[in-house]
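Backbone-to-sequence.
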């Protein structure tokens, strides 16, 4: 069975973006890039909300072609090109996007069916609104929260609409040299 895994950077006070969606506070380095590379090796599908997908589409299809492309840029660009992409959006539906499905409704049925097909894991990158919808529907199997050493004071919270108690089991924790701490949880 395939798992749906949330990959999210989060501030110490629980925000996943600034009030206007700013992400310039995220701490990232080669160690984290390498760790994410190990995650994507076990996944063949990226899941995105509309805004995050638009950001990804603007960068990853040509990232490896840039003269200053890093090892990570080259590796992730290949993964992005070859992976299936699922976009949760009520407004997008352009069929011209290669290897991309746009989901507007019946999210629970769609993902439950997809989890029972052959393939690797599915990773949600960022996308706080989409992630919260999937979490509320009980569809996220694992949460990989990269806690950054910063207090934002205000911003967009991952858990702002969820009113349910969700029990989780700690699978692993990892401290990166840059001060980011990974908290990897799963539903029991």
């Amino acid at each position: 069975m395939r798992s749906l895994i949330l990959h999210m950077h989060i501030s110490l006070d629980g925000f996943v973006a600034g009030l206007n969606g700013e992400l310039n506070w995220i701490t990232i380095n080669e160690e984290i890039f390498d760790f994410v590379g190990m995650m994507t090796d076990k996944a063949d599908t990226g899941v995105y909300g509309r805004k995050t997908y638009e950001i990804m589409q603007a960068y990853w299809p040509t990232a490896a072609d840039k003269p200053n492309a890093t090892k990570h840029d080259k590796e992730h660009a290949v993964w992005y090109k070859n992976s299936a992409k699922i976009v949760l959006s009520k407004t997008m539906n352009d069929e011209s996007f290669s290897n991309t499905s746009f989901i507007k409704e019946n999210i629970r049925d769609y993902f439950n069916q997809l989890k029972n097909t052959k393939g690797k894991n599915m990773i949600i990158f960022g996308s706080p609104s989409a992630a919260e919808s999937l979490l509320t529907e009980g569809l996220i199997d694992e949460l990989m929260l990269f806690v950054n050493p910063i207090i934002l004071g205000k911003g967009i919270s991952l858990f702002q609409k969820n009113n349910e108690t969700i029990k989780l089991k700690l699978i692993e924790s990892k401290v990166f040299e840059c001060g980011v701490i990974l908290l990897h949880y799963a539903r029991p």
